[in-house]
Amino acid sequence: MDARIEASPGVEAGSSGAGALDEAAGIRARILDKLTYSVGKDPLAASARDWFVATALTVRDKMVERWIAGVNETKRTGRKRVYYLSLEFLIGRLLLDALTNMEMVEPTRAALAGLGVDLEDLRDVEPDAALGNGGLGRLAACFMESMATLSIAAYGYGIRYDHGLFRQRIKNGRQQEYPEDWLSFGNPWEFQRPEIYYEIGFGGRIEAEHRQDGTLKHTWRPAETVEALAYDTPIPGWRGRQINTLRLWSARSPDPLRLDKFNSGDHFGALMDQVRAESISKVLYPSDSTPAGEELRLRQEYFFASASLQDLVNRHLRQNGDLHSLPDKVAIQLNDTHPAIAITELMRILVDWRNLGWAEAWNITRATFSYTNHTLLPEALETWPVPLMERLLPRHMQIIYLINAIHLDQSSKLPGSTGERLAAISLIEEGHGRRVRMGHLAFLGSHKINGVSKLHTDLMKETVFRELDLVLPGKITNKTNGITFRRWLKEANPGLTALLMEVAGDRLLDDPMLLEKVAHVAGDASFQERYAAIRLVNKAALAKLVRRQLGIDIDPGALFDVQIKRIHEYKRQILNLLETIAVYDAIRAEPMRDWIPRVKIFAGKAAASYTTAKLTIQLANDVARIVNSDPTVRDLLKVVFLPNYNVSLAEKIIPAADLSEQISTAGMEASGTGNMKFALNGALTIGTLDGANVEIRDRVGAENIFIFGLTADEVEARRRHQGIDGREAIARSPKLAEVLEAVASGVFSPEEPDRYRGLADALTHHDYFMVTADFESYFETQRAVFRRWRDKPAWWRSAALNTANMGWFSSDRTIAEYAQDIWNVPVRQPGNG
């Protein structure tokens, strides 16, 4: 066993004395070896990227031995495995993450320094693996790390997209989308597994024949076959005690070249099968606004679900012989509805391939699957047109019909059953064209369904799954999200981590609940001074980045007010912008008031086809252009939109934030995890009682968070009784009326005066997201933020208390709850043996 694993908890082993020098020398030798024999470069000719690859291969080698040992130990003991199916894994850069968890940061830094290379430069060379859209994908990455940290034998399954979430550029204030080519220089972390591939079928026909016992056997004859090829990335837990596998599937054609067509001169036609097959893993979330795009999305989801099911079933059969024991040895977690088709795929495998009876197959399936719901937005609960499903996945559509028929027959016999209830719980939605409800399928095919915050789970029972919960009670449970606090504290904010470890002890990174010790010194002046000084250093670093990227100078001493997340109407970046404009107007009208310097920082991507979200980005940039160039503002207000938001940019912004904007319409954000990352790093939250904001308030104390606006119940009541017309709220707020008139009349778009008129009209007449209703409350709460900022001891005490009370929001705690309540697998806490 590596000697560093035996080191005392919380101390990077070999980090001092002769041992550290020996370890650094050993790492230096291995890096040079990799540079020479794997990269093929002489040190004098090596680029920063060459050094990055050599360093990544060195730490990967360190992981492989434990990785293989862990796999063998799981086989030997026969312990239960968890399979986490997610269309997104927003893993970001892996170098520092791997070095941190393998406890190799400082010896590697020393080794590289001895070669004239700066580790920080190599961090910037690594591309972000943008295999996700936002919180859902980042959560999957956090969960993978925590499962390894808690010694849970786990696989993550997803798609190895050639191009992840698009690279965002801002041109003339507008978002421009470009391919994210993270694989253009190869990926040193992964292992291609050419021997592991599965055939995935589409289309075709169903053949039925009678077995000897008189039952029907169905055989699907696909018209098209695509191969799923496996790529494995090792995912180390904290201290490298367990290494788990992220297996991503890449699509390829079984026949990459039609030689007959090529030789006949049809050179393009000869490659069409290859192009069609590879399009499945080409791009994350292709637009589904066209029939072709919708079909590609469904092909993606079935492709990765089928490959993953075939893979885990084959593994189970090799080790256990039959599938009757599948629920005892396997837990499959569906991360949202994207992999829900896996339920019908397992039924197909059990019934068609393994000849199990329907009832037994269904019992095995339900006992194996569990489903995490991430949204109450109807448009995000996937549905697929029945004709598309029947054409693309004909056997699965048969299975869905039979599941639904049995489900409705059983439900019709329950007390209180009505035609309206049966229509509500049916897998087939009949209105506006027949569609398959994937959320309903995930609910029926799982033994547990969880929400991701207490509020979200409660609302799930009252809204999207109300009728299903009445028919099948007891399935819904809550598992509030968490974050990998080692990444979002130790890696993103090492200065603060060092200070916190002085207070909480060396075991802090093993046990985040030790953060509670920080509460005892939150009011101490010397602690506050050091805490504030660390924040100022982080703000200066962010100011430098802003200057380099945008040419805008911002004052590190100003209040950094930050909203970084996917651009969406329910997240209400527009509310933030309206308040920004109101303050801009007030500064110009009353220049002699004692204004607090403030920097409004925005970042986030809008879906390529989401017109309103893209218009919001343009408005943010137009407001920035006008405000930042107005000499009367005298740098009291700056507005910044940082392009191409990703994990690495978040790691720079979050430690520098003073105020965290979590201002979604109450009842619409499932949980949020950015709110946890900000609070962990000491930013105070301004937000609605939405998602995990509720639990953050309960933990940090109402006096240490700025809550405003309508509650979820009030939002629902207002929509029901008063509608979504914003005119009454606008009439009550002269400030808001003035701001909307400025936006609508082209004050911020003089070259195109009507650019935002439609946006202003929508807020006036169709304000579904309650922007106008919450504006005054938000504006006044921002003034409370200003008052607290002026009282620096009070501000820093609140900041420290936020940090002190974030330990509970560790993804280690979340995963431990999944393990106990849903998966039925044991865990081993970090630092305990």
TrEMBL record:
Q: Which organism is it from?
A: Methylocapsa palsarum
Alphabetically, the GO molecular function entries are: glycogen phosphorylase activity; pyridoxal phosphate binding
Q: What is this protein called?
A: Alpha-1,4 glucan phosphorylase
Q: Keywords assigned by UniProt?
A: Allosteric enzyme, Carbohydrate metabolism, Glycosyltransferase, Pyridoxal phosphate, Transferase
Q: What class of enzyme is it?
A: transferase
Looking at the record's lineage, which domain of life comes first?
Bacteria
What is this protein's function per UniProt? Phosphorylase is an important allosteric enzyme in carbohydrate metabolism. Enzymes from different sources differ in their regulatory mechanisms and in their natural substrates. However, all known phosphorylases share catalytic and structural properties. Allosteric enzyme that catalyzes the rate-limiting step in glycogen catabolism, the phosphorolytic cleavage of glycogen to produce glucose-1-phosphate, and plays a central role in maintaining cellular and organismal glucose homeostasis.
Q: Which InterPro entries match?
A: Glycg_phsphrylas (IPR011833), Glyco_trans_35 (IPR000811), Pyridoxal_P_attach_site (IPR035090)
